[in-house]
Amino acid sequence: MAEPRITSQQRRIVHERARFTILDRTAFREHFTWSEDFTMLLGITPKGRATVDALDMNHEGIVNLRRLLHEAGAHPPAEPGEASR
Fold this sequence. Notes:
The chain has about 80 residues and is mainly alpha-helical. About 40% of the residues lie in helices and about 5% in strands. It has four helices and two strands, in the order H-H-E-E-H-H.
């Protein structure tokens, strides 16, 4: 695992369980997006990037799992009110 980057400004991270529920997709979209192939979670704000880095949200195992789930049509999760993909 890479050494944490030291910055001149401390960043707050987003606690995924407390912050993002099935009903709170707006908060998710505010801080994160998916890579083009839906395997990598990308932080689009300083808080989102800090969260992805601090929680190692793109380690090899989870990226492989997301790839398999996407191929099976189960990832990314559908938005509320949408049919499964």
